[in-house]
Amino acid sequence: MEPKKRIALVSGANRGIGAAVAARLAESGVLVLIGSRDLAAGQAVAAPLVAEGGEAVAVQLDVTDDASVAALAGRIAETWGRLDILVNNAGIGLDHDTRLTPVARIARTLEVNVTGTLRLTEAMVPLLARGVSPRIVNISSELGSFALRQDPDWEHADKIMPTYATSKAAVNALTVGYAQSLAGQGIKVNAICPGYTATAATNFGPDRTPGEAASAIAALALADADGPTGGFLNEAGALPW
């Protein structure tokens, strides 16, 4: 590995937006760690990136499992000694799962989307503190915006997903907190909405592709010293909280 080559970890990178973000970062010359609960699924994403001349390594990662996260942090420390970019992409949406009670839905969603983001971030901060222009990008959603959800003219006003929205509002709160607490270490932290995208989570309904969604995420992860921190953004700019 060439000196100072940037190293990124993308959680939930075995499909959809996460896989597309990994591809964009690899195309930009970043060594990408493909985080996936199923290692084989991560390897299936990494293989074509390597075949195309990129650097990608599949790593086992379950953000709900302390041991999995700790093991990965140890491996990164031992193998590379630092981390430069963390993309907290792993997430679920269970609002339409009628097999679960509302309490069960929100408990599971918060476990992955919020506690999982917190767990992984806490484990990676010491490595990011050693990184080159360290960045944390949290994947959020416009559904987490209190202002937009109260606007009857908002284009997604018909999407009633209170459990998912609650989890993303909490991710936004984590983003602000980490941006403040990590500023002294030079770590920039932002939340970004990738837009309504054709993935398994949306039953592949929208026209927007994961590749299109990944562009703004990768750009934020690679932002220079003048880039934002503590922001909630999409590809057009700042979003209201």
From TrEMBL:
Which Pfam families does the UniProt entry name for this protein?
adh_short (PF00106)
Q: SUPFAM superfamilies this protein is in?
A: NAD(P)-binding Rossmann-fold domains (SSF51735)
Look up the record and report any one GO term of the cellular component aspect: membrane
Keywords tagged on the record = NADP, Oxidoreductase
Query: Which GO molecular function, any one, fits this protein according to its record?
Result: oxidoreductase activity
Record InterPro entries: NAD(P)-bd_dom_sf, Sc_DH/Rdtase_CS, SDR_fam
Q: Does the keyword Transport apply?
A: no
Kindly indicate where the leader peptide sits in this chain.
none
Source species, domain of life: Bacteria
Q: Which family does it belong to?
A: Belongs to the short-chain dehydrogenases/reductases (SDR) family.
The protein, known as:
Short-subunit dehydrogenase
